[in-house]
Specification:
The structure holds 2 protein chains of 2 kinds. Chain A is mainly α. Chain A folds into 2 domains: 235 residues, no CATH class; 107 residues, 3-Layer(aba) Sandwich (abc type-2 transporter like fold). Chain A contains 14 helices and 4 strands. Chain A has a 4-stranded mixed beta sheet, sandwiched between helices. In chain A, helix 2 packs antiparallel against helix 7, helix 2 crosses helix 9 and helix 7 runs parallel beside helix 10. Chain B is α/β, with parallel strands linked by helices. The longest helix of chain B has 18 residues. A 6-stranded mixed beta sheet of chain B has the order 6-7-8-3-9-10, with helices on both faces. In chain B, strands 19-20-21-16-22-23 form a 6-stranded mixed beta sheet, with helices on both faces. In chain B, strands 2-1-4-5 form a 4-stranded antiparallel beta sheet. Chain B is built from 16 helices and 23 strands. Classes of the chains: A mainly alpha, B alpha/beta. At the A-B interface, helix 1 and helix 8 of A face strand 6 and helix 3 of B.
Chain lengths: 362, 535
């Protein structure tokens, strides 16, 4: 291994990235994704147009109405409608939810009283979330039993804050997409412009070239780990309960995986545009779907459950969510296992990429 | 002493064979030239020697034998390759000095101030060390690439078309640098598309369609064909005529002439049984004004860069006007302004006596202009017939009219047998002719041709010029043609030469010959460039 070769390429790459202003994108895009998605993905449902039909008119029913009224989640109107009329309101999109308190509800409370809750199901995700809210409100507030369990999702997110659920999950998306595309572009650029001949015709080893080419995206995005962490902690006020060292180490490994993917993309493409499109497509879809933001991996179906396990994002995000919200770190065997899996990914991708790179014109 | 021995080397890409069974050897301090058209196999052979492409056969450098790029690694510190393309190996955002740092580190060299200074001075770049490569002119880029490849003091230098598209002065300087290094014990293999550069090589090899068709000293090769070379140009199915000479295998009743190197390609084609194409173009009368295009002080800027600076140009009825210049001189930009593909920043433009101001003015005149763009704008997924049908439809010809025209032109321009092939499958010369047919379908009165002959082989080029002259003579159309082959000025009626966006010459060909008697165009332009530089 000749250090002078690596130094030559590194120096050139840094000058190049700074002068062609790619450096701006390198630091702008991750932050942009974090802010856009962080604010943009709303799993929380607020201001649900709720109609409460109170047939009971008791102290308890009034209390229930009060409970509903005093949260930002529901905009309550108490109306005296028939069941049919109320349903019509949902069908014509004048209400999102109807709560019917039957007559003599409070009297029958201890015999097994029931409240009728009707939720507009046109947005299933919203419906499920609303169901969760109602259950929580009734169980915690009045100990009224309902035949459905509450989802695990909210377990470590006691305050029910959306940012806590979404923002950490974005790390897995951002650090899969962005380093991969940067790595792919800076390798393919040499092919597209023709400067790759400097590598072909000089007595340089493949490994030296690849190391020199992968270090810049790796280093640049290592800094992004800290930038994104600061945004998460101080802009979105997400707590950090885990071990910082584990968080940092696993993120660096994950960036290695990403630049490894970029290396593979650069082998099969020959223009920067193709490299960019391909690397974004193959990283953005799994990076988003299996990030755990939209749906916990554990509640996925068989096929998607298997697919989720193929992509590294699931393992990484598990450790990241743990770092922010739980804080078990390597005390949890699962985290240790996932960490090892990520290391294997990184090594495998880079070894595979290195063996596939050809030091000759195809 | 032999420094390099190449034995039966073949290079192929998939099914396509780029070069077949090439064998030759190179002596110490020898400059060997590879001459041939694009796709003749020069680059592939150079790449094989430099160890950047897989090949069949055997190459022996000094006493080391290699059969693959991997085995060639060991000799890469003694061989330097400069690939084809203007400054291809340069990074636009790196300065000249930073390139030296990069290449020095890349090859693990110690800094040798004296040597680097000397190289920079030789290339005339000493004053420009802080300039970014992206801001250098084509000629400067090429000189920088050359001195960078000399940085490691190679024993064998491989240059792939270093002079293509470079201005005449930079070209002469490139050759000076190579000669100076040769004195110090370096050997070189240099490919070129310019026949005139053969005189600068010790020995040459001529390439055609993946084969080496002749090798030896230039004068020997010329000597070999002197029995087949006659003075003047004739029209015959068995002889090729080009550049005031006729090449024929059977004896003719004409005066013998001293052949040129180009003749070797013609004689070779004749020996292979190839026949020249005779273009039958019907005579026609068209009614157009005497001045077709008149440009008054046309200027085009891209940011701070002035691509064309106040250019006056006139194209007369029935005239072939050659627009000459190195890459980046502003030829294509000017044509695009004339066509309305670029908005004009300053100046006035008259087409067929009408002032062109708006987009509507132009649409009206589109039907009078035929345009063949650089690299030919063909659809590679359509066959030649489909391409032509598409162009016919674009110009609003109906089905029966277009099929009649397409048939007519395919016979006239001699590509009838290729009608159902894809552009990729046919030689460049055929693509060139059918592009012209596509531009002629709507019967324009003026043709704009942007570098139609670049990279095309000699035989096809001669046919092309014959076609152009005949189109002019029989159809009466005017032709504006750009080229960076200075020697092609010979076939134009008038030439305008651009240098970095400024017109430096605009004169009739015969006047230029009178002014510089006994010189060929290569040298005429070199003189003019030098005169302008001294001013």
């Amino acid at each position: 291994m000749k250090l002078n070769v690596i130094r030559a390429y590194l120096k050139k790459e840094f000058i190049d990235l700074i002068r062609n202003k790619m450096i701006i994108l390198t630091y702008l895009i991750p932050t942009m994704i974090l802010i856009l998605f962080g604010y943009g993905i709303k799993l929380e449902v607020t201001h649900t147009r709720t109609i409460i039909i109170d047939h009971d008119h008791s102290k308890l029913s009034l209390e229930i109405i009060n409970k509903f009224s005093h949260t930002k989640y529901f905009d309550v109107k108490v109306k005296n409608l028939t069941y049919k009329q109320a349903l019509h309101k949902i069908q014509t999109n004048q209400a999102d939810m109807i709560v019917i308190i039957p007559p003599s509800f409070s009297k029958n409370l201890y015999k097994g009283a029931e409240i009728g809750v009707f939720i507009d199901g046109s947005f299933p995700l919203r419906a499920v979330t609303l169901q969760g809210y109602v259950e929580k409100l009734l169980i915690h507030g009045f100990n009224i039993k309902l035949p459905i369990k509450i989802e695990n999702r909210n377990f470590f997110n006691e305050s029910m804050r959306d940012y806590n659920a979404v923002v950490p999950g974005l790390f897995g998306l951002i650090f899969l997409v962005v380093p991969a595309s940067l790595a792919a572009i800076i390798i393919v650029k040499e092919k597209e412009v023709g400067t790759i001949f400097n590598f072909y015709s000089a007595p340089i080893k493949k490994v030296e070239f690849i190391i020199a080419k992968l270090i810049p995206p790796f280093l640049f995005h290592s800094l992004n780990i800290f930038i994104l962490l600061l945004w998460t902690l101080y802009l979105f006020n997400v707590p950090f309960r885990g071990n910082f060292f584990i968080f940092w180490l696993v993120s660096e490994i994950y960036i290695l995986i990403s630049v490894g993917i970029g290396l593979l993309v650069s082998i099969i493409t020959s223009t920067q545009v193709a490299a960019l499109v391909l690397s974004v497509i193959i990283t953005v879809i799994p990076g988003f779907l299996y990030s755990g933001i939209l749906m916990p991996i554990s509640s996925m179906d068989k096929e998607s459950y298997i697919e989720a396990h193929i992509f590294p994002v699931m393992y990484y995000n598990h450790i990241i969510y743990d770092s922010f919200l739980v804080g078990q770190g390597f005390k949890s065997n699962e985290n240790v296992l996932y960490f090892i899996i990520l290391c294997i990914y990184a090594v495998a991708l880079i070894v595979l990429g290195t063996s596939l790179v050809k030091k000759a014109i195809k | 002493m032999e420094i390099l021995k190449v034995k039966n080397v073949s290079v192929s890409y998939g099914k396509k064979i780029a070069i077949k069974n090439a064998s030759f050897s190179l002596k110490d301090q020898e400059i060997l030239g590879f001459i041939g058209a694009d796709g003749a196999g020069k680059s592939s052979l150079l790449h094989a020697i430099a160890g950047v492409v897989s090949f069949d056969g055997e190459i022996i450098y000094k006493n080391y034998t290699y059969h693959s790029p991997k085995e060639a690694e060991k000799i890469k510190n003694e061989i330097s390759l400069m690939p084809q393309g203007l400054g291809l190996v340069l990074y636009d955002f790196l300065s000249v000095k930073e390139h030296f740092d990069f290449f020095r580190d890349l090859r693990g060299l110690k800094k040798d101030e004296e040597y680097e200074k000397r190289l920079l001075k030789m290339a005339g770049l000493y004053e420009f060390q802080d300039r970014l490569a992206g801001n250098l002119s084509g000629g400067m880029r090429q000189k920088l690439s050359l001195i960078l490849s000399l940085l490691a003091r190679p024993k064998l230098l491989i240059l792939d078309e270093p002079t293509t598209g470079v201005d005449p002065i930079s070209r002469a300087e490139l050759w000076d640098i190579v000669n100076e290094m040769r004195e110090e014990g370096m050997s070189a293999i240099i490919s070129t598309a310019y026949m005139s550069e053969a005189s600068k090589m010790d020995r040459i090899m001529l390439f055609d369609e993946g084969e080496i068709i002749a090798s030896g000293r230039a004068d020997e090769l010329i000597e070999n064909i002197k029995d087949y070379t006659y003075e003047g140009e004739i029209e015959s199915k068995e002889c090729f005529s080009f550049n005031k000479r006729t090449y024929c295998l059977k004896p003719l009743n004409l005066k013998k002439a001293t052949p040129t190197l180009e003749g070797v390609f013609f004689v070779n084609a004749l020996k292979k049984g190839k026949k020249p194409i005779i273009f039958e173009i019907p005579k026609k009368q068209i009614d157009i004004p005497n001045i077709i295009v008149e440009a008054k002080c046309l200027t085009k800027k891209f940011g701070a860069f002035i691509a064309d600076n106040c250019i006056n140009l006139e194209l007369k009825k029935g005239e072939i006007l050659g627009l000459l210049g190195a890459n980046g001189a502003g030829k294509t930009t000017l044509i695009k302004m004339l066509l309305g593909l670029y908005p004009i920043d300053e100046g006035e433009l008259y087409l067929l006596g009408k002032r062109i101001k708006s987009y509507e003015d132009r649409i009206e005149l589109k039907s009078k202009i035929g345009y063949v763009s650089q690299k030919f704008a063909l659809y590679k997924d359509l066959t030649i017939r489909e391409n032509l049908e598409y162009f016919a439809k674009m110009h609003g010809l109906n089905m029966s009219e277009s099929s009649k025209k397409i048939k007519e032109y395919s016979q006239m321009l001699g590509f009838e047998e290729y009608m159902d092939n894809f552009p990729k499958e046919v030689p460049l010369g055929i693509n060139q002719r059918f592009s012209v047919a596509a531009a002629l379908l709507h019967e324009p009165v003026v043709l704009f041709l942007d570098e139609p002959t670049s990279g095309v082989d000699t035989v096809a080029r001669s046919a092309f010029w014959k076609l152009i002259r005949k189109l002019k003579a029989n159809m009466g159309i005017s032709i504006l043609i750009t080229t960076h082959y200075m020697s092609e000025a010979e076939y134009c009626d008038r030439v305008a030469v651009l240098k970095r966006g400024v017109k430096i010459v605009d004169d009739k060909v015969e006047n230029l010959h009178k002014k510089y008697p006994g010189l060929d165009f290569e040298d005429i332009f070199l003189n003019i460039y030098k005169e302008k530089q001294n001013k």
